[in-house]
Amino acid sequence: MTEETDWDEVWHLAQQVFVKGVPMELTENTRALLLRTARQVAIRDEEAQAALQQESTSSALLREIRRRIREGSHRVSGALLRCYRLRDAGDLEGARKLMEDLLAVEVVPLYREEAEIVLEKLAMLGSAARSRKHRL
User: Fold this and answer.
1) Separation of alpha carbons 38 and 40, rounded Å
2) I need a labelling partner for 72 at 20 to 30 A (CA). Which of 93, 104, 107, 132 fits?
């Protein structure tokens, strides 16, 4: 996922709606923001379009987008921290398993991409370590 995210805008909108109690206005810009960010967190277009038909369901869509961003972020950051600790301790297999477990549950493409990149790097480390072992 190489596109930019609109998550700061979503966070601001969620603060306005859920914390400050400002009614959400379904302007063209708000609809476009919610539709874009729904895609960015793996919510189907049909589901997002249906939710954008009225304010109450649009608020529910915003809540779900915010939830996926927040929970995915916590899940990824925790897994990465544990992964790097295992890697640094020499347990590449354990680190790899953590990233595979993360991919089994994570739906947000950006977070999935992060886990896949780490898996690729762990594979390269593992190959390099095996290559060094064979040379000795």
Assistant:
1) 5
2) 93
Residue positions counted in the chain: 136
Confidence bin at 13 (pLDDT 50/70/90): very high
Tokens of 105: 């549950």
Backbone angles phi, psi at 121, to 5 degrees: -65, -40
- Residue pair 119/99 in contact (Cβ under 8 Å)? The answer is yes
User: In 10 A of CB 92, how many CB atoms?
Assistant: 16
Give the distance, in angstroms, between the CA of residue 115 and the centroid of all CA atoms in the same chain: 10
Spatial CA neighbour of 87 closest among 50, 125, 130, 113 = 125
Residue 111 to residue 39: CA distance in whole angstroms? 13
Structure token pair of residue 67: 């939830």
How far, in Å, CA of 94 to CA of 115, rounded?
Answer: 14
Phi then psi for residue 131, to 5 deg, are -65, -45
